[in-house]
Amino acid sequence: MSNKEHAQANEAQTLISRPGIAGPIPAVHDMPPFAERLQRGLEDENMHRALERFAPSWRQSRQALFEATAAEYGSDYSFVALRQRLRAAKDEAIAHQQELVARFKEQATAAGAVVYEARSAEDANRYIYELCRRKGITLVVKSKTMVSEEIELNHYLEERGIKAVETDLGEWVAQLDHERPSHMVMPIIHKTRQQVGEVLSRATGREISRENVAEQVAVIRREHRQAFLTAGMGISGANALIAESGTVMLNTNEGNGRMVTSLPPVHVVLAGYDKLLPTFADAMTQIRLLARSATGQPMTSYTTFITGPDRPGKEVHIVLLDNGRSAMRADPRFKEALRCIRCAACANICPPYQQVGGHAFGYIYSGAIGLVVTPFHHGLEAAAGPQSLCVSCNACETVCPVEIPLPSLILDVRSRVVASEGLPWLKRLIFGVLARPRLFDLFTRLAALGQWPATRGTPYVRYRYLRLFEGLPGLRPLARLTRWRSLPAFARRPLRDRIGARANLAAARQEGRRPDEMTVCYFAGCMTDRLYPEMGEAVIQILERCGLRVVFPRAQHCCGLPALNSGDRQHGLAMARQTVRMLERALDESGADYIVCASTSCVVTLIQDYLRLFEDLQLQSWLNRTRALAGRIMDFTSFLLRVLVAQQRLPALRRLRPGETAPVVTYHDSCQSCNCLGLRTEARQVIRDVLGLELREMRDSDVCCGFGGSTSIEHPEIAERLLERKLRHAEETGATLLVSDNPGCLMHLRGGVDANGRPLRVLHLAQLVAEYLA
Amino acid sequence: MKSSALFAQFQSRLSAAGGVAHWAEDLAQAAEIIATHPALAEQRLIVPPAFAACQPWGALLPLLSARGIRLEEAMTPEHVADAPAGLSCASLAIAETGSVFLADNALAARIVGMLTLTHFVLVSAGQLVPLLDEAATLLQTLTRPGPQQQHYISLVTGPSRTADIERTLTIGVQGPRALCVIVVATPASDPSLFSSEEAKDRDNEQ
Questions:
Q1: Which of B115, B166, B173 sits opposite A254 (nearest CB)?
Q2: Mutate to test the interface with B, among A192, A211, A217 (most CBs of B within 10 A)
Q3: How far, in Å, CA of A309 to CA of A286, rounded?
């Protein structure tokens, strides 16, 4: 390493462990360790069945509502436009927080409210407790507030002899059962009606139906009436704090919120600074997004606007909570998370969340946003386990109503966890090898020779071969991994050995070009190169049949995705630089017009993740170099449709052979293709319109297959379940071919098909097209 | 006609939220709708204090009394809790969402819509507006500091509901089990009390 590189690496290291993340961490009482929460979540079949049922119906009603509104009121009211507006309002509030707080305080105080700024959880708890003590209040009624969960207010008050009653039905049942909410909007989605009936029977001492939900709901009205009429204080959260008027906005459905805020003589509002919004107009935008994003309903039953006390003798206290929010605001990346309106859309759409629930997928706050904010409110350690559950499918970002880059922020948390706790030895070893091209080359070639006992010459590492060696140290975990998903064998001849003269980059220049000739630099990705060279050959075949000149830089290597995705920025950075340098040289030597890659995961790494990495590490020149490259990089599917088909370069297709029946195809949307690159129609156009094949859509075609990079190794139970669902949905269509355009998914899908002997062929889109060229 | 299209929109949104919207030409029709509603089986109706003096809705009360309905002014929460029916008036009805806009500083007035089992809300057709944005404008006006400042405003969209248990939708939790909004075309016999855009439109059409 040169001195300069050393200095850069050092700089990178200090930036990785950038301070400002923790601060004093309040202890959370009775929180079981992550492993225990995860195990419980995995075993809770009722819960994941409920969450799996909810997800598709929520997606459908949410989308239908946004589409209907846009159709009726125009594109200004589309989801995209609304979320841009709310994002802008929230960004303004975050940027001008001090002015907004001053304005809010001034207006709320003028309207008769008392505003208290609490730096920590302890400050907020103490303020509320002292208020109770001064007024001799011993009973408090509460409307649902996540901030109260964040600071464990109930626990604090109860330790000091003050009874706090949750009046939201779900929160109340959770409270009675000494649980925390597992979802920010539907606190007891993990409970069945039988369990609720039991809890209510135990609490009331009366027999409450285990089946009749209406009867269960009726219990709360009767049980809480007295508390509402006698409580000395009502505590609520806030959905927004409107600065222009000093108004607190609350969205509720059950009607308890209005009672909590109206009936007792003292009302305490507990809210983070992140709830500030400049104007009522902004609040309307939030209303239009909140309920639809949360539950797929158009609007909550009650939207209440409170501006100071309504009557003489009534007190309104507004507790503004920091508790880590200033640290978030000071962080150029994490300040974006302060836009959150706590709708839980990121949880609703999250595939691993559906498998383990919010107690494991989060800490106090659950879902993707929970993984992001937990380090700031409850410490990095509290986020260490939960963040490992994210499969980086990016679905959350597509539905977030304030455009928080959740997947990237989760990876930032991951890299901070790695920076503080170090990588597990196995990953350190793997990425160490991966980051050294020659060593990796040697390793894969040796592995291809030595793998026979595990593959018996087939393209798979199979459980039935491996089980013989299960007794050997270290092989048991590997064998267990192949039980439900065979792993791919290393190719005896990787793609780089099959490319012949295409490795001569300068030839394209030297031989001169026809005026219409196009040169493409093919970046294969290490998975295609080492595991699936036949996919690469299909890509090359198509490009050349279209009359293109293809060059294959032999210096190409892993783009660094596995390391970056595991939070290993040190090795990731090395591979990113290596790849950028290699591609620049290849373009320079070959004069290629495009860089084409048939792995959308690699494309996203190249054109999105590198930018963020170099930006974070303030490596300006690398950032500029990557930006210059990014415009030339195209994923294979887009290239096929937008260049080859659009320019009518694709040759004629062959006729079906005698006796050959056309296959029925079903398509799996790789997460990187649809969620990161926005490819939702392109592959379908190729299959249906270009190839003329029958395409049968599977259910949830754009839901993650469970590969999720290293998640499938760290949390195989989750990967297995997601894969099982995906293959079940594919089979339900009756299709014989399962097609996708990302080798990572294909590896996972193929392995699942092989291990379970399912009657499906799994192909890359390029392989399918190549089969039909005349 | 503009108002009928808006009303249809309002009605469908409110009904999707579990509420019911009625159109009444005048107060007599509104009285008829309330008096014949099943919630009035006991002929008992809670109204906010000083409702009789409230323009233009106060004139409805004699019409209801004439039908034998016992009108009770709301007093304490204990008094109003679980009463079969209550009546309020709204400052706006919003077609986009099927919401009514209720502004009441007096707790006794608010508990009518909070604690009774069926909540009737009156709103004049002139106050039926297309979009939530008009609520923002009115909120701005009403929360302006001063003696007229409104401290407690609610947009009510349907009866109280929950889906907390197994996502089973249940109507009627802590608040009303039914919400019945009556949009009255001409709430006052005195046209000077009725000078909305809607009335002007109608005058122009005639």
A1: B173
A2: A217
A3: 24
